[in-house]
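Just wondering, does anyone understand what follows?

——
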Amino acid sequence: MAMDWTRLFRHLLSTRGKLARAFPVEALAAIETAVTESELLHSGEIRFAIEAALEPRDIWEGRTPRARALQVFAALGVWDTEANNGILVYVLLADRDVEIVADRGFNGRVSPAEWAAVCNTMEEMFRSGQYERGAVEGVHEAGRLLARHYPPFPGGRDEDQLPNRPAVL
């Protein structure tokens, strides 16, 4: 496999500062609020993670955003929910790529095309610099998919099994 030099340089230039400009404290708070609001409408769990860039070695080895999202899904324990109904919304800023990894409780319930549509909506907004809006809209869209299969707890309470605050990796 040939080295993708453009991608390598894009990742080298995607710093924590660039991430902080795209997702300032206010945007992280808005994402957390969106997760909290969404989880009142279903009994699933949404975990949001943002990463500025991959390590040069990962680029050299051809690691895809999807492969990294699967690693983050495991590292953040998104698989560790009682009903196996957690999802990870993973943003790789350098690639402007969004991946959704859903736990096995969604097998046969939500199609890959439905998850991809949420990712595409977010990526489109990110391309125009609307990071906060894209992230918040993506959380709400994902929440609507979760609500179809995991109704809310009685009384509209949210029994958090995963943090609502975005993980900045």
Remarks:
- The first strand starts at residue 45 and ends at 51.
